[in-house]
Amino acid sequence: MRKEPLNIKNQKFTGERALFNTHNAVIESCLFHDGESPLKESSDLKLNNVTFQWKYPLWYTTNVEVINSTLLETARSGIWYTNHLLMEKCLISAPKTFRRGNDITLVDCELPNASETLWKCTNIKLKDVTVKGDYFGMNSENIEADNLTLDGNYLFDGGKNIVIKNSILNSKDSFWNVENATVINCKINGEYLGWNSKNLTFIDCEISSLQGLCYIKGLKMVNCKLLDTSLSFEYCEDIDADIIDVIESIKNPTSGVIRCKGYKELIVDENKRGDAQIIVKE
Predict the structure, then answer these.
(1) CA–CA separation, 279 and 282 (whole Å)
(2) Largest alpha-carbon pair distance within the chain?
(3) Cα–Cα–Cα angle for 216, 218, 220, nearest 5°?
(4) Is the pLDDT of residue 111 over 90?
(5) Domain residue limits, the chain
(6) By C-alpha distance, which of 183, 186, 235 is closest to 208?
(7) Domain 1-133 falls in which CATH fold?
(8) Among positive and negative, which fits the CA dihedral 220, 236, 163, 170?
(9) 3 state SS of 7
(10) Beta-bridge mates of residue 150
(11) CA atoms of 279 and 259, how far apart (whole Å)
(12) Do the beta carbons of residue 122 and residue 141 sit within 8 Å?
């Protein structure tokens, strides 16, 4: 059995499954041109300065490190059913990347076309990552993100066990159907934030959201600003919110306490479902 890694350098590959079932290899300065699934069923790979131009390059792979490399837009659906993956300083231009994978780490990566990306994956770490695309992170679990910049709607729909820090999230309908999410020192801009979620915490955040923070069971907010946030907290249960500015409008909160510097409009009508307390701080 080979102990030293196979070294593959300065080559161009074409055709389907070009390096199928490759193990213990260093691949450097290579181009995978046309041909599906070039590294399918491979393991223990180190890739540096590699470009993938066609579909499904890293399916069913294990223990893969990818540095300074590129997935072009045509390398769509590129990394599925993959375990123990590190990507650093990579450009991932392909949509629908990462499905049903485990232990995925992205560091200093750009994803400019990330539609339907990172679906139903577990144990994810994102550091200094820029994303543009809708439905990022859907139904994924155990997510840690620091300095994530995202432009795209429906972020982390159906996700569980999420911690996001120091990030900018421009996303309508983000954090829907989520369980156990903590968002720290982030700026969030987008309508209908957090609906139908459980155990959602915001700490030191700035939030702008039409009809945001509604239909949540277990909402905690610490030292947060609600900028241009109207019709908020509707049918929200078990609220413990500390808001440091004036809220545009509050509508029919169900239970818990909202502490704020004031509100411009309070709507409590015949459709209310409880008696949440609102405390105006001096």
Answers:
(1) 10
(2) 75
(3) 105
(4) yes
(5) 1-133, 153-282
(6) 186
(7) Pectate Lyase C-like (2.160.20)
(8) negative
(9) strand
(10) 131, 169
(11) 5
(12) yes
What's at 260, amino acid-wise?
C
- The pTM of the full predicted model, rounded to 2 decimals, is 0.95
DSSP states along 152-177: -SSTTTT-EEEEEES-EEE-TTTTTT
DSSP sequence for 78-121? --BS-EEEEEES-EE--SS--BS-EEEEEES-EETT-TT-SBS-
Structure tokens at 94: 């392909």
What 8-state DSSP symbol labels residue 56? Answer: -
Identity of residue 44: D
Segment 175-226, tens digit of pLDDT: 999 999 999 999 999 999 999 999 999 999 999 999 999 999 999 999 999 9
pLDDT value at 1 more than 60: no
Give the separation between CA 237 and CA 72, rounded to whole angstroms. 45
Phi, psi for 145 (deg, rounded to 5)? -135, 135
Closest CA to 242 of 207, 271, 209, 273: 207
Residues composing the chain: 282
Give CA–CA dist 17/38, Å, rounded: 4
Whole-angstrom distance, CA of residue 52 vs CA of residue 35: 10
At position 243, the amino acid (one-letter code) is I
190-207 burial, b at 16+ Cβ within 10 Å, e below that, comes to: bebbbbebbbbbbbbbbb
Q: Cβ(109)–Cβ(127) under 8 Å? A: no
